[in-house]
């Protein structure tokens, strides 16, 4: 298992390379570079970050800009989506990041089936351009979304991943929990997620999964805010830790809690406690 923060911890002052080294010294071994407001990292900075990650055996991923909509109605917005995906893919290649994460799109009053067709078409175009640029080692990570207006349920992302090369679902447990009114409570609830992924995408998909976790505040329309782990909100992490240990699932969990690295370490400790009880 790999654990890390979504971006530079608040208590650290410095660049991405320094933050990677900082979190490695804390005992973490994953780091998600945040490009949610645009890809602004220079290549030399990405090379520096990659060297730091390789030195410390830290696995890197990248989060693409928020303003991606693979089902946009206007061609201009589809072009902007492709530009944001490809900009992130290119910097991920320099970083050595294995997956870029993004929200696939919005229904915008259309049926899930129609939206699926449009999203798939945009992703195929992105993958085609990646092939032209000979980028073959960066996965497109389709993040499960937290509101009913957003395309990107677990089943939708699995269906896309089953039909497209180098595309995988990224499970945001807080988003799934919030979208369906707080459904993740017990081990059985988490197990359903991994079972669906394994049944549709095979064992490798649960031996090398990528995910986000935090607790979450939500309402009738879904997700509101990511929250600190182990306080007054949900979903609980302990049942997930037990499911991971008991079933031998392996992958990366990125903390999106406000306490980025602190809660990543908290989850790691809870996982290790579950593993020690199993032994």
Quick synopsis:
By secondary structure, the chain is of the alpha/beta class. It contains ten helices and twelve strands.
The radius of gyration is: 18 Å
By CATH's scheme, which homologous superfamily applies? Divalent-metal-dependent TIM barrel enzymes
For the residues shown, what is the average pLDDT?
96
| CATH fold-level label | TIM Barrel
Poorly predicted parts? none
Structure description:
This protein has 10 helices and 12 strands. It is of the alpha/beta class. The chain has one domain (2-278): Divalent-metal-dependent TIM barrel enzymes (TIM Barrel, Alpha-Beta Barrel). The strands form 3 sheets. Strands 1-12-9-8-6-4-3-2 form an 8-stranded parallel beta sheet. A two-stranded antiparallel sheet has the order 5-7. It has a two-stranded antiparallel sheet with strand order 10-11. α2 (43-56) links the parallel β2 and β3. The longest helix has 21 residues, at 75-95. The two termini are 17 Å apart.
Topology:
Blueprint: E1 2-5, H1 16-26, E2 30-34, H2 43-56, E3 59-63, H3 75-95, E4 99-102, E5 105-106, H4 112-132, E6 139-143, E7 150-151, H5 154-163, E8 167-172, H6 173-179, H7 187-201, H8 204-207, E9 209-213, E10 215-219, E11 222-227, H9 238-247, E12 251-255, H10 260-278
Helix pairs in contact: 1-2, 2-3, 3-4, 5-7, 7-9, 9-10
Observed structural traits:
279 residues; alpha/beta; TIM Barrel; eight-stranded parallel sheet; two-stranded antiparallel sheet; 10 helices; 12 strands; 47% helix; globular
